[in-house]
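Subject: for your reference before the review

Hello V.,

The reviewers asked for a structural picture of the protein, and I figured it would be easier to keep everything in one thread rather than splitting it across files. Below is the amino acid sequence we used in the manuscript, unchanged from the supplementary table.
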Amino acid sequence: MQLPEPTEDALIASRALTSLIHQEIQSCDGWISFARFMQLALYAEGLGYYAGGSTKLGKEGDFTTAPEITPIFGRTLAQFVMQMADAEPLRILEFGAGSGKLALDVMLACEATGRPVAEYVIVELSAQLRARQQILLKDFSCVTWLDVPPKVFRGTVLCNEVLDAMPVSLLIKKQGRWLERGVGWQGSSFCFIDREVEQDIAHQIPDADALPDGYVTEVHLTQQGFIRSLSEMLIAGGRGSAVLLDYGFPAREYYLASRASGTLMCHYRHHAHSDPFFMLGLQDITAHVDFTAMALAAVEAGAQVLAYLNQATFLIAAGLPELMQTFSPEDTKQWLPTANAVHQLTSPAEMGELFKVLIIGVGLDVPEAIVAQDKSYRL
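And here is what came back from the structure prediction:
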């Protein structure tokens, strides 16, 4: 692969992470699950991709998220947050806040309407990203940081590209049976090793028996556990919602026979490729989200699925067109970059269709404009 060369310090860190994972494989009789491999590659203390010091977001990083593209994304989410809160104080909990840009844009937008945020809680695992957030948000006394989610929360939870950053398990179908694809060590490098599945972790795959031999895909056990915990937290609070924005599909679109290699993807300095063993700790490893599995996990935990729609439809229903009217087309310096950014967020050829929005909640309803566009019957 023709990818940018890392610095010598980055290479040293990557080799240290490789050694760490190699040692764990040896201590586990030569095999660890891919989910465990991905957990270490992303979150091993001081070495994993999200636990190290490399720049993740923006032009100098490996990928760009919606809040980095334009502040109108956060402003639109602020409109939704204020509608969901009704007359209650604005309380927001954000998981994985990245650079802090979404939090900044949401709080500024709420403040501009005369409804400042009363409480903004950020749960952040990355020390490097938390440090960036604390610098950017230093003027907002309502912001606090937690290492683990609270047991009880009443308000709106924001999860923008959080689920795709969680480890996935890999499965492969051989001779009509599902095997779990794990990671071993051969010679001087990592390799895939397939083993019998100890439990039925393929149950979320519709028509699993009809898929062909050699079919490789992901299942989302960690994400399902997260959704269950999130639902329990909202139930304990008595009233609240969670907005999960990510790229993915409902199950019957996710597990198509034509998607025989799964959706696992790696990002290194804005280059996408499919080798999870490349430059460990220096690249993101991600997979699309099975939104059907997420919705079922919420319902099983006692929460409600309030809406499911693509990102373009959600942003439009949440008030994006009205926000665009605050910009004058005659002011080309403002209008053109904003219009280009909105196109990127909403175009079916960009993020508009690939990114989906799942809204779950307890004790409330979503605005009628969103109900009218709800596609949860597709889940």
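For the response letter, the relevant points are probably these. The chain has a mean pLDDT of 93. Residues 8-27 form the longest helix (20 residues).

Happy to draft the paragraph if you're swamped.

O.
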